[in-house]
Amino acid sequence: MERGTTIRLVAYGDEIITRTVVGAANGTLMVCRADEWSKAQRSGREPTVVGFPLSAVVQESIGA
Predict the structure, then answer these.
(1) Segment 1-38, tens digit of pLDDT
(2) Which of 15, 20, 31, 40 has the most other CB atoms within 10 Å of its CB?
(3) Is the pTM of this model over 0.85?
């Protein structure tokens, strides 16, 4: 998955959430909320991320 791609994944309690991909390594996908992605881009910094297993992804490339 490419950096900046919007995806859906399964979070705690089986909630489906929408997040932006920041990176992936060793089976872990680093994601952030869309607002955090935008703020980080505007301020020239890396976004604050949360890690999820790749298996949590239920839909890739939303809106593509």
Answers:
(1) 899 999 999 999 999 999 999 999 999 999 999 999 99
(2) 31
(3) yes
